[in-house]
Design brief:
The protein is an alpha/beta fold. The chain is 43% helix and 17% strand. It has helices at residues 11-22, 56-66, 80-85, 87-108, 144-163, 184-196, 218-231, 248-258, 285-291, 299-321; strands at 2-6, 26-31, 48-50, 70-73, 113-119, 166-172, 175-176, 203-206, 212-214, 216-217, 237-240, 245-247, 264-267, 279-280. Helix 8 crosses helix 10. Residues 4-306 form the NAD(P)-binding domain.
């Protein structure tokens, strides 16, 4: 099978690349602004081409070269906080970029399945009686990133209805794992790994520990996206969420249990957000029914693997300095 992964040097894309290569597929990936360490994608660097999806001619070249049976559309400005300071760039990348991808597919005359990475951020604030969130819930995004993902999904649906391009949209909830940066699990495990190596005092600075988040391991998410490519209904929309919401305080406890050293907690006002959803938790029953997907990686394993990842990265940095 021929596979094109747009955004292969991103967190999720890198796992899809590795899995597709290991499965023996003919794989092409794109890179533009990597969000993972270079060492995490050097193993498939010879299968990458540079492509900024904001520019139609670059997408045309990638699609003509690969002529894929499956496209994973992961290229995006994917940080909600950044979307407040760079709303135009967020919209141009995520919305115009999505349109470019579908127009290139039309021009190339191919018939791939397109798995589109959408987001739980599309839902915005959700009342307690609507949790876990179903796909039928109204979309009321609270920041430009969420708005861009609503538009991304609407474009995918439009190209399916009007042009028959087989798009499948995955509304992805909190996902973490080794290589991740910028979420609570990544931040906490990184700091604790630094504490273990004596780089900072044994104090973990925290924000709001009372919120609840359903968390999926990236390896389970990659498998869900593969299953949607194979079994998802064209034009379909599927939540991909962990099956249980964890209080952030529980995550800290799991990190402490997996760590080699004790640490204390200190609330950092800079880590407290003006508004923070109390619970983010999706209903994945449509995904399970369509594909048979189930979570396989426990949260304890995810946390342990993330700590091991940071220990290894810090160890390599020490060797480089020496």
């Amino acid at each position: 099978m021929k596979i094109l992964i747009l955004g292969a040097t991103g967190f999720v894309g890198s796992y899809l690349m590795e899995r597709a290569v290991a499965a023996g597929h003919e794989v092409t990936g794109t890179h533009y602004h990597a969000t993972i360490d270079t060492r995490d994608w050097v193993g498939f660097s010879d299968q990458l081409i540079r492509c900024d999806i904001r520019y139609r001619e670059q997408i045309d070249a990638a699609i003509v070269r690969s002529r894929p049976d499956v496209i994973y559309l992961l290229s995006a400005q994917s940080y909600p906080a950044l979307s407040w300071t760079a709303p135009a760039e967020t919209l141009e990348t995520n919305v115009v970029g999505t349109s470019n991808v579908f127009e290139s597919i039309k021009a190339a005359g191919i018939d791939p399945v397109v798995v589109v990475a959408c987001s739980s951020a599309q839902y915005g604030e959700v009342q307690a009686d609507a949790i876990p969130i179903k796909e039928s819930h109204p979309l009321r995004p609270m920041h430009p990133y969420g708005v861009s993902k609503v538009a991304t999904e609407m474009l995918a649906m439009q190209y399916w209805v009007n042009n028959g391009i087989r798009s499948v949209c995955a509304r992805i909830f909190n996902t973490t794992g080794p290589r991740k940066t910028g979420d609570v699990c990544a931040d906490f495990t990184y700091r604790v790994a630094r504490i273990e190596q004596g780089l900072i005092p044994p104090v973990l600075r925290v924000g709001n520990l009372e919120t609840h988040r359903a968390i999926t391991d990236v390896r389970d998410l990659a498998r869900a996206l593969e299953l949607l490519a194979e079994r998802g209904a064209p034009g379909g929309v599927y939540n991909v969420s962990g099956s249980r919401a964890y209080q952030i305080r529980e995550i800290v406890d799991l990190i402490q249990a997996a760590s080699t050293i004790s640490f204390t907690l200190e609330t950092d006002q800079a880590l407290l957000r003006p508004s923070d959803e109390k619970v983010i938790f999706g209903d994945s029953s449509s995904l399970v029914e369509a594909t048979g997907w189930a979570q396989e990686v426990t949260i304890a394993k995810t946390i342990g693997d993330m700590l091991a990842y940071w220990r290894n990265m810090l160890g390599m940095q020490k060797k480089e300095v020496a």
